[in-house]
Amino acid sequence: MSRSRAPRRPIRWHIAVFLAPALIVYTAIMIIPLFGTLNLSLFTRGEGNTREFVGLANFATLFGDPRWSGAFWNATWNNLWFFIIHMLVQNPIGVALAAILSSPRLRFAAFYRTAIFIPAILSFVIVGFVWRLILSPLWGVAPNMMDAIGLGNWFAPWLGQESSALTTLALISVWQFVGIPMMLIYAALLSIPDEVLEAAEMDGITGASQFWKIKLPLILPTIGIISILTFVGNFNAFDLIYVAQGALAGPNYSTDILGSFLFRTFFGFQLQLGDPHMGATVATVMFFIILAGVSLYLFGIQTRLRRYQF
Amino acid sequence: MSARANIMRSSAAHAILIAYTILALYPVFLIVINSMKSRRAIFNDPLALPTRETFDLVGFHTVLEQGNFLLYFQNSLIVTVASLFFALLFGAMAAFALAEYRFRGNLLMGLYLALGIMIPIRLGTVAILEMMVAANLVNTHWALILVYTANGLPLAVFILSEFMRQVSDDLKNAARIDGLSEYRIFFTIALPLVRPALATVAVFTMIPIWNDLWFPLILAPGESTKTLTLGSQIFLGQYVTNWNAVLAALTLAILPVVVLYLIFSRQLIRGITRGAVK
Fold first, then answer.
1. B276–A contact, CB cutoff 8 A
2. N or C: which end of chain A has fewer CB within 10 A?
3. Best residue in B123, B162, B274 for a mutation probing chain A (most A CBs within 10 Å)
């Protein structure tokens, strides 16, 4: 009945036009090759360079064979620690800096913002080498500086010790990227309308309590986005480890994370031969780890965040 | 609030910001000053500025004689600017469609496009390489531009659609009543209003492209298409024990990026403040 009354809506071609370029490039260059590679995890190299379907046997090897599973879990736990450091150090510092920067009538705010973001624009190649040089006991910059402030005895070759190398690398990565949460949160704080803040002031909510009660709830969606971006970034990080510690993620694999583990598996290193099929298997597991984290965020957290439209 | 408390608070704010600024910049500064010193001075007094006795550009001579850094820089620039343009334009269009219209499959489409944020495109490297070989695009700028555009799109769509949703509906409906087409609404209303977000997304998209090591190595390792990051990585690996050359190469890799960033950041800051002032 309703069909006869309401005239059929015309096809809205503009929606297709808006979506098409992004969809085509994204599907052709990213999705199709990705599934092509995931597909490889179900095969192994047969005799005479053929591909042989083996089902889930590669996964059984990865989780069941002690030579593989030990390295895999080591990389996974290291990766988790790498992420935890980012969440505990990078995001609070980013929020704090953004909150200070956005305080009204602060002079030189543009200068600080520009300067603090600079490490984030440098490549891993640069950052990895810079810190390798600075922390090198050979050069002695770090011990000299710590001597100057009376902490000389605390110096240790952090990148060379199994117990501290991973944490040091995570902190280097935090040093590099803290500008990104800072900028995103800063933009979010600036977009809070003055009327809201004025209303808060009328009610006597100022300063720190204004931050906790008014601003923080308003920027929670931004913090959510930052957290999930950090998660994804950390779980496919590779470059910093590679540049600072090499493909073997030394000392004694203590800085091995999933990205470097994948690299060694895929391309081989030194005595170990590269295996595209086991590499694809590791890649698939990484894919599911990331998928699980992102789903948790999208369905468990994001839907509960309240969004305000002004 | 008393004026005195105000001054206290603002000096505390400045103290924190200055301390953090030093932490962020000092390591870079240290590399730059040491690149201009003699080898002996680098080790004897690393924290000192170069003086007349210790000033030495031997590292730069090595770098400029051995490397082809101007060409590498040009390659990086072409690839980054082109990828950025396509990722932002296509991304903003798709974000607008997802945020603005209700249509069947909207949520699914959003999820499909967001999938790319969590999938590192590196996982598809083997198939991408096969494809580029088949299309005869290996060792061309287009191979990198296509990959980076595809890689930049999901994040651009994800962040921009968050911001597109905040564009006032009244404004768009008023434009519709005035007879503007959907395309005009996108280009003249939505796009200018999300400019701060565009600037932010641009910086975040640009950085990984400029700094990527992986795809230049696999898709465009030829001398004529080598990017600056790949060029410096190879150089640093070869000259690892030559401290003068390493410091000089790092300085040469740092300076153009910082200059480029300083030029862009004025644009970025203007964009952010313009968007924030209502």
1. yes
2. N
3. B123
Q: Which of A206, A223, A222, A189 is nearest to A92 (CA)?
A: A223
Neighbouring C-alpha atoms within 13 Å toward the C-beta of A121: 24
* Burial (0-12, 13-18, 19+ Cβ within 10 Å), A51: middle
Q: Which residues pair with A43 in a beta bridge?
A: A53
Domains and CATH numbers, chain B: 3-58 (no CATH), 67-238 (1.10.3720.10)
Chain B CB contacts of A110 under 8 Å are 269
Does residue B35 sit at the A interface (CB-CB below 8 Å)? no
Q: Which residues of A touch B233 (CB under 8 A)?
A: 125, 243
Q: Do B94 and A23 touch (CB under 8 A)?
A: yes
For residue B46, what are its two tokens?
């690393």
Closest CA to B266 of A175, A113, A119: A113
What pLDDT digit, counting tens, does each position of B25-40 carry?
A: 988 888 888 888 888 8
- Smallest Cβ–Cβ distance between B47 and the set A117, A141, A175 belongs to A141
Which of B:70-129 have CB within 8 Å of A? 86, 89-91, 93-94, 96-98, 101, 103, 109, 111, 113-128
Task: Find out whether A93 and B9 touch, Cβ atoms under 8 Å.
Answer: no
With CA atoms as reference, the chain B residue closest to A172 would be B24
The token duo for A135 is: 């922390």
**H helices within A137-238, ranges in order?**
141-148, 165-177, 179-190, 194-202, 207-210, 216-235
Two structure tokens written together for A12: 């809205």
- A72: closest CA among A270, A233, A232, A286? A286
The two structure tokens encoding residue A287:
């894919």
Q: Which amino acid is at A126?
A: I
Contact B186 A194 (CB under 8 A): no
Q: What is the dihedral of CA A117, A121, A122, A127, to 10 degrees?
A: 50
Phi/psi of residue A44, nearest 5 degrees: -140, 165
* ipTM of the complex as predicted: 0.82
* pLDDT tens digit sequence for A67-122: 889 999 999 999 999 999 999 999 999 999 999 988 877 888 888 988 888 898 88
Determine contact, residues B46/A141, Cβ cutoff 8 Å: yes
Whether the per-residue pLDDT at B75 is higher than 70: the answer is: yes
The string of pLDDT tens digits covering residues B217-264 is 778 888 899 998 888 888 887 887 788 888 888 888 788 778 878 877
Instruction: Report the distance separating Cα B226 and Cα B68, nearest Å.
Output: 9
Kindly report, residue by residue over B137-192, the tens digit of the pLDDT.
999 999 999 999 999 999 899 888 888 888 888 888 999 999 889 999 999 989 99
Q: With CB atoms and an 8 Å threshold, state whether B207 touches A120.
A: yes
Pick among A29, A89, A277, A302 to test the B interface (most B CBs inside 10 A): A29
Q: Which residue of A has its CA nearest to B45?
A: A141
Q: What is the pTM of this model?
A: 0.81
Give contacts of A33 with chain B, Cβ < 8 Å: 124-128, 131
